[in-house]
Each structure stands twice: as C-alpha cells, then as structure tokens.
Amino acid sequence: MGQIGPRSVRTNDFKDLFDRLPARVQKTAINRYVNYFASDPFHSLLERHILYDTLGAPTRSIAVTIAYGYRAVGVFDEETQAYIWYWCGSHAAYDAQFRKGR
C-alpha cells in the first residue's frame, strides 16, 4: 500500500516539544493528522494559514491547529515534497514566538 496524503517530517525540536504536550493534546493532534491533514492539508478544521514576518511579508512557514488552543508550525519543502514540522505548542506560546510585533 502506498503513502496516502502528503509526507511529513518532524524535526528533533518538534518531537521534543510534542512529547511535552498534555496527553489529551497529543491524542487530538494525532487524530487530526490522520483524519484530516493526511487526506486534505487544507481542511478548514486545521485553520491553516501562512506566517508573516515583522514587516508583513509572507514567509514559507504555515501554522495549523492541532488541538483546541494548540498549533504546529512547519514549512513545505518543494524539493522533497514534504512538510517539515519544527514547532508546536499552546496558542499563547505560538503568539509569543511567531506573532511578535503584529
């Protein structure tokens, strides 16, 4: 059986952050990945959006909702045709990390 949906790669930082999430959030995140992202990376439940730099220009990074109040951030690599996930955490931590000055 071949792969279904887009390929995803998790960085070590992402894995460490994911392991620190509450168990219920991990479970929901895995469920959303399997049942939504794997078949449709643009599914509305994921609330996917592009991140912008402090000058308002779009970056290559995207953010998706992995559970209520939690987000994951990654980038789609054209060369490997894979999403590379490098950050996840609470929405408050996301705001502090990625929405500075906005």
How big a fraction of the residues is strand?
Answer: 25-35%
Distinct helical segment count: 3
Mean of the pLDDT scores? Answer: 91
Q: Based on DSSP secondary structure assignment, what is the total number of beta strands?
A: 5
Question: Taking Cα atoms only, what radius of gyration do you get, to the nearest Å?
Answer: 13 Å
Spans of at least 5 consecutive residues whose pLDDT stays below 50 are none
Q: Which range best describes the helical content: under 10%, 10-25%, 25-40%, 40-55%, 55-70% or over 70%? A: 25-40%
Q: Could you describe the largest sheet, including whether it forms a barrel? A: 5 strands, mixed
Determine and state the CATH class: Alpha Beta
Q: What distance separates the N and C termini? A: 45 Å
**Number of structural domains:** 1
CATH homologous superfamily descriptor:
RelE-like
Verbal overview:
- The structure is a single chain.
- It is built from three helices and five strands.
- With 102 residues, it is an alpha+beta fold.
- The protein has one domain: RelE-like (YaeB-like fold, 2-Layer Sandwich).
- Strand 2 and strand 3 form a beta hairpin.
